From TrEMBL:
The keyword Transmembrane helix does not apply. InterPro entries: CalX-like_sf, Endo/exonu/phosph_ase_sf. Keywords: Signal. This is Endonuclease. PANTHER family: ENDONUCLEASE/EXONUCLEASE/PHOSPHATASE FAMILY PROTEIN (AFU_ORTHOLOGUE AFUA_3G09210) (PTHR42834), ENDONUCLEASE_EXONUCLEASE_PHOSPHATASE FAMILY PROTEIN (AFU_ORTHOLOGUE AFUA_3G09210) (PTHR42834:SF1). It comes from the Bacteria. The keyword Signal applies. Residues 1-19 form the signal peptide.
Amino acid sequence: MLTLLVALPMLLLSSGATAYAQTAVDPLTVGAVQGTTPRSPYAPTTGNGSSSAKYQVRGVVTQLTLAHTNTGAEQHGFFLQSRTTNTDGDPATSDGVFVYMGTFTTLIGGYAPVVGDEIVVSARVAEYFDLTQLTNAEWITTLSTAVSEIQIDDAVPPAEDDLFWERHEGMQLRVRTGSGVVSGTKTYPATGDAEVWLVDRDDPVMKRPDPYGRRGGNRIMLGPMGLKATDGNLPTARTFDTTSGDAVGGLYYAFGKYGIQVAGIGFTPGTDPAANNPPKPADRQREVSIATFNVENLYDFRDDPHDGCDFTGNAGCPGVTPPFDYVPGSQADYDARLGRLARQVTDSLHSPDLILVQEAEDQDVCRVVGAALSCGAADNADGRPDTLQELALTIARNGGPAYDAASDRSGADARGIVSGFLYRTDRLALVTATQLKLQVDYRGAPLPGNADESNPKAFNAVLPADVDRSTGVDGSNVYTRAPQVGLFEVRAAADSYRLWAISNHFSSGPETRVGQRTEQAAYGAAIVDAIGTQDGAQERVVFGGDLNIYPHDAQLAPLDKLHNLWDNLTADAPTAAYSYVFQGQAQTLDQLFVNDALHGDLIQMRAAHINADHPDAVSDHDPQVARFQSRAGLSVGDARVIEGDSGRTPLVFPVTLTRPMSRALTVCAATVPGTTTLPYADFDPYLGCRTVPAGSTRVDFPVQVRGDRLREGDEQLTLEIAAPSVRVVDGRGTGTIVNDD
């Protein structure tokens, strides 16, 4: 056991000179404090406590730091590192350590740390959430000033070395010029702390020819503590920017991640993520566009008198712990956010016909009067979320189309977050609630509210007892935020048809609530099954939202009967297939699934990369937009018939629509001889029109084949079709006359 030193005399000499008076036992090197394992040998063996004894440690002050608590209290500290001539010589130990000072700006003894001073301190050794640090530090002496003999390694973590960061904890590291940013600068409002993730300039991902593929890799996080010590903060950067110069700072560990607390940093603008295969405008005469958009805690600046947990200072609701920190800072902040969301809808999403929305506040004390929101004290004023109505009004004021909002408030969670819809009133309409009647066949007991009549409608059930709870559950029901099922009439150019939409917000945390989220997917699949086939035809169904899990994860297996449009996006534009960026890693949490009928109408799936990569994001999610054919598709099938010896036999060509139409459709057809037939020798030419009745999907065209006894080969002819106001998917059918002589 090392014995404690007595205080050393302070001898200030010229720059870099040693003024250390040897005693019976030298102070510890920083490497000795850090040790060869993640936990210091001088700290308690478990927990977040400090050693009861104090140890004298020698090192150079390399950087001052400043952080803030959630309440704004200042937290001071500095990095201490052994000079290159006084290390322990072991590459497995770090030569740097963080010294925590709390609200004080000086150590015990009155010393204010100065970068470049080599000092000896007497301090307790602590492990604080896996960060080795010195606490309760007392200044003993200053050995030298303006010391520059400090090892500064490049921040180039090897791909397979998990100990790289631990071996450099507390040390100064260099981020090299030209390193690539892989996330937008993220600022945490409660503390004002910011972070940005990047990769070294020589990381393999930086060599990819496609600039949009330069992400992932061996990520490096930058933090703000060094900059905040000089009244600064990390500058804003977005994905694909690069560092404009070398940046140096101490390596700190908090919240499960290492971060280099640089003293200064600059960025050079790079490729704009929003230009990565963006959504295209829909042709309203031929297409319908559907989006999903998590608007991230869209709360207004009103204190709902009927809600105890929707505003700063509220007492709280069951399951919601004050303080309530989702409210915008002011009415002006709220209005500005609405304006930015509105511009994203119109400019980047090109005003989709239908938006599946998540994370809107469910408050409903207002109604639209004219072109403004009129608010009062009555609860459930008009059955629409005030926030979504205000967003719709903002879109209209900015020159966009007219939208209406829709949601079933019973689907909200404990803090008033609900899913819902925004839909263009010139393109879609909600059908009457009496038409939305579903009997969801699910093994859990349905909630009483399932029987209520509304459109949209929230469906939920009791979470079955056998669901795996080992990773936690959120509440006693399948959903904490019930899915919203909406039934819409799409007003296409020539007719109208029904569209079922299901807006979801699954439980958060991909690695937690695994059993519950799997059950949510199973319930969602049951809803789709309940919609199924109605009126003799398969309904068109879109199922989407923030599912909080990655595509094709086993948790989504119950939805495999549907088509995940992420697959289409990945096939068309693989570098654009993501909706969320977490610690520099592109992920897909927001997804759109469709059934067979709607998948047949798909034109294109795209993601609008307008948030997740940007420092000034209005949401932490990127919207997804899919375009579909809105006109019914018309096809003619092939036909085959045996010629016969005499008389006439019909060669029947089936003509089908991809969906029933709301009115009768006239289809015209004509025969064209094939190369193996004499012109009209073996069949009667056909030129005429037939009608597909409203609500039907098929009509047959018979071509009369003439029988004979001639020995000849099989013969072919073609039937060509045409019809107004529909899209011809396959307009030529091949007819084969099989010779039987």
